[in-house]
């Protein structure tokens, strides 16, 4: 059973220090409080809900509890490699609340952003994987991989760069040429690393950096810590940021976005950032709460005053 912080009033519960037990959480900012009744819980995926093929401890039970309380539940990920349908299928297969409508990725947001700026059917070059290509195609663009670029093909109106585990010099050169020729330069995210069960590997940010260096241009970034994902969450759910609890594992992306957007922020210690990283930050850039893992989420929701529906 999840244990709530010790103490009977909010002042004692907000004191510093980690409480013991699997369901414990820590209040990092003593003034942390809901900006309004919590209506939406949004979570990053990699390092929060799963790590590689493995579900983090307590995730199925914690997310089922969110649904039982009548809260909206969404997943917001910088990962651009998988389409929302594929992410939903994986969630379902792991016994987690699913549905493509629950999933927002940086690839999906990139399509939305470009649709507001380019005519339908325009050619878009992709440095990335199948999920990003599909999202941009479904957004109405003639999307194709940079590695397939052919001489004499129509000049792309935009180049969208994400995680690409088949990244080559040829892809880099094609993207460089298109951007220097005037194409919009869009990055799904700038995560330098990506957590796996065995180790941390290079992330999309490493590839974005290579393209930016070659093209001598900086991209417009869709993913966290920029607020495009937060704005998309508010748009599709109708829930304002102040009534959203956002849970992530990385300070410089998940938490920075949540703070910038005005969300209630919580960091789990199952992914990239650590307690040591928290000590290197000033108070304004700290999350409101820290959870060892999602087993502490029900206790946090109790603390925030969310009761079962």
Helical segment count = 11
> β content, as a range?
15-25%
Find the CATH superfamily of the largest domain.
HAD superfamily/HAD-like
Termini, distance in Å?
A: 19 Å
Specify the CATH class of the largest domain.
Answer: Alpha Beta
What does this structure look like?
The protein is of the alpha/beta class and 309 residues long. The protein folds into two domains: 30-78 and 225-303, 3-Layer(aba) Sandwich (Rossmann fold), CATH 3.40.50.1000; 115-221, Rossmann fold, CATH 3.40.50.1000. 32% of the residues lie in helices and 18% in strands. The chain has eleven helices and 16 strands. It has helices at 10-13, 59-68, 84-93, 106-115, 130-138, 169-180, 204-215, 228-237, 251-261, 275-279, 297-303, and strands at residues 26-27, 40-43, 50-51, 54-55, 72-77, 103-105, 123-127, 142-145, 158-161, 184-187, 193-195, 200-202, 220-221, 244-248, 264-268, 289-291. The longest helix has 12 residues, at 169-180. The protein is elongated. The protein starts with 9 loop residues before the first helix and ends in a 6-residue tail after the last helix. Residues 1-21 have low confidence and may be disordered.
Tell me briefly what this model is.
With 309 residues, the chain is of the alpha/beta class. Helices cover 32% and strands 18% of the residues. It has helices at residues 10-13, 59-68, 84-93, 106-115, 130-138, 169-180, 204-215, 228-237, 251-261, 275-279, 297-303, and strands at residues 26-27, 40-43, 50-51, 54-55, 72-77, 103-105, 123-127, 142-145, 158-161, 184-187, 193-195, 200-202, 220-221, 244-248, 264-268, 289-291.
